Structures are given as C-alpha cells and as structure tokens.
C-alpha cells in the first residue's frame, strides 16, 4: 500500500481570533479501495478542524480535505511559526499511518490591562498603592512606569520602573507616594494622580488613582489650642489691668512732713484669723403631691414612655430559616442560605433551590451563610480572587469550616476590602445525603447543577470558577 499527500499551502498565516484553511490533497497509489481517517495532532490540534474526517478512495484516484485553523485571541496563541501535523490512518492497512507536516504562522497582537490596588490610599506622610499590569497579548511586553499629578504635589518612588512580562503573565509595580508639603493642621485633602504605562511606539496607558492626605494633627485639636491660648492671654491681661495697689498710710504722712525714715516699731502679735461663717440649715421643699391611683393606671394603659428604646428585630440568618422548615417538616432534609452582595449587604434567606444573589447586575458575592437540617451537618470552603496570582486563578483563603444541623456556617468575608468569591466547595456529613449546587458567574449563564457523591470518602462538590477575572453573582442549593 502507498499514499501520496500534499499540503496546499505548506505554510499559512492567521490572525488570533480569525481563521484560515489549508487543503490536504492525497492519492491512493495502491491497488485496493481504502478508507482514510484524518486527525490533527500537535500543539495546534485544539484549534484545528478537519472536514471531512473520513475519505474513501479507489486505486489511482485523488481526493482532498480542508483543515481549518481558528486560534483564539489569547496569550495561548503563541506568535510566530507553529508546526502542525495531520495523522492519516488507512482502514485497510492501519500500520501504514502517514503524518504530513505543515507550518502555521500566528501574527502577534498586544493587549495590556493595568489596575491600581487599591485605587484610593490614605496617609499623612506617604501612600503605598500597587499597580497590577497584565499582559493579555501573545508577545513579550516591555514597558516603563511613571507618575504625575496636577500641580506637582506628590513625588513618586516606583519599583521596578521598567517591566518585562511574558504573554499571559502579570507584574506588580510597587509605588510610594509622598506629599511635597505636610498638612500640620486641618482636614484631609484629596490629591488625584496618574500612573502611566509607556510602551514603545504607542500612546501611554494612564491609570488614575487618588491619594487622601490626612492632617498631622486633627482640626479639633488646633481649635482647642487656639481657644486655650486666647483664654490664657485674656487672663494675663486682666491680671495686669486689675492688680491691687497696696501702699502704707504712714509712709504717705511721713512724705507729706518731709521725713524720709520712720523709727522701727515694736513687734506685735499676728492678727487673728477670721472665723468661718456658719450657714443656717434649710428645710428641703415638700414633695409634689402624687398622682391619683386612677390617673396612674390610665397613664400605664396609654402605652410606653417616649424614652423607651426601640427594640430591633433579630437578624434572620440561614439557621433561622432552616429551623423554621425543620419544625414544619421534621422528616425531610432542607438547606437554607443567603448571600452577602457587594454594596448591598445580606440578601434574604432562601431555601431548597431558590436564588440568592443577583443575576447580570455585575455585583459580586463576598460571603455565603449556609445552614442545613436532616443531613448531620455541612462543611464548605471559599475560593476567592487573588491579586497576586501568576496563573490567572484565585486561591482558597482558609481551611474548611463546618457546622452541625440548624447552625450557621459562613464562608468568605463581609469586610469592606474582602476579596470577591470566585467559587466554593461544599458537602454534607457522610451518610447524611448529598448536596447539589448551581452557580451563576459574571458574563456567563448558570453553570449547571452539580452534586457531591456521598459514601466515597470525604466527597465534595465545587461550584463557581477558578478564573481570577470572574466572580460569583448568585447561587442555588438543594439537599
């Protein structure tokens, strides 16, 4: 058996995000009818499609198939020449496999994203934001970073000031902002600034941030010191103005008579101290007559006093909701949950497959509160955004947290600067049943129902995404 093949063209070029087609011609030079199967192999195989995948040829006849390449516009589509191959397997003689090779050149593209973490920093003498620079292109990125602001109010210490980032990677640039003038007294001032990512031959990419400069001493202290100094000065002036003048009458008479000295007088006893004045005791005023018993009863029946404090209703958590269901249906399993939405706080507790969170509003979840009944407890862990990620994925922030039936279990954090939830792992106590989840991720639909496998060790189910650029928007649970 023999086979002749030819790639037309042998070398092709394609843009990331686009597509191109290469034709593979082959001739059956043998003496039997044969059927050939085609399979793309090599690094470009995931982006290659062969049509048709099976071709039947009679002896001496020629046929062709099309190989379509569609590399994505991502860092995985490496710029430059990329070899590829197609495996041709004859049905009649599978041992006589042929692998023609070709070359596909992927054109380079550049895409850069920069973000300040955090965008607003506060301080009296300095601020230390970080600039995250992501290379989303398919070629190495070389850039310099510089800072500027209106009025030259800040100085910038940037390290490193020049970065080289491989495709699909990120770099963090540490920046120290220092105000040129210190605010000794007074309120804080906002100082906008810009960090520019400069690449050769293109306009710089500006990332804007804000430095909130605080006063060295609070304003109220400056006011207090000013008032104290004014009162002290007033007291001194009053003392000088009204200081008593004491003169001896005998000295004045001698001066009138022209005598300048006075014979010494005999010593006398010290004058007695004045006695302490006594205060006549006073009788306290009589108490006002008390209100009649009937009037007091009427007042009590009229409601509480205006000074009574308003009693706040207790928070309805997931445990509160699941305890109510367990009381109504003690022979069934239930799971209740609620979500902490950024900028909105905790949602209402829902149960058994209802939606907690928002869908399509670009509002990430920060934390989940889960409680179960009839499953012997539950355990879970949070997978969150990682600002220092080098592989484009988040990370787990803590070990598993668990709770028994009817007890609140929390994952994630509700702090203001807490990272967004990307995903979670969850299970119920081995032997207590199975837990199922469905998660809605940013820029995507519901990911689909997934359940753990009880009885297989410490089984669990993961919901959400590993992608550092996405986040959870809503969840559903059932047991």
List the helices and strands and how they pair.
Elements (H helix, E strand, L loop, with lengths): L2 E6 L2 E4 L5 E9 L5 E8 L6 E4 L2 E4 L4 E8 L10 E11 L10 E6 L5 E6 L2 E4 L6 E6 L5 E8 L5 E6 L2 E4 L4 E10 L9 E11 L5 E9 L5 H23 L7 H9 L35 H9 L16 H11 L5 E8 L3 E2 L3 E2 L4 E2 L7 E9 L4 E7 L10 E2 L4 E3 L5 E4 L8 E8 L7 E6 L8 E2 L9 E4 L7 E7 L1
Parallel strand pairs: 2-9, 11-18
Antiparallel strand pairs: 1-3, 3-7, 4-6, 4-8, 5-7, 8-9, 10-12, 12-16, 13-15, 13-17, 14-16, 17-18, 19-20, 19-21, 19-23, 22-32, 23-27, 24-25, 24-26, 24-28, 28-31, 29-30, 29-32
Describe it.
This protein is mostly beta strands and 479 residues long. The protein folds into 3 domains: 3-106, Immunoglobulin-like (Sandwich); 112-213, Sandwich (Immunoglobulin-like), CATH 2.60.40; 318-478, no CATH class. It contains 4 helices and 32 strands. It has a 5-stranded mixed beta sheet, with no helix packed on it. The protein has a 5-stranded mixed beta sheet with strand order 11-18-17-13-15, with no helix packed on it.
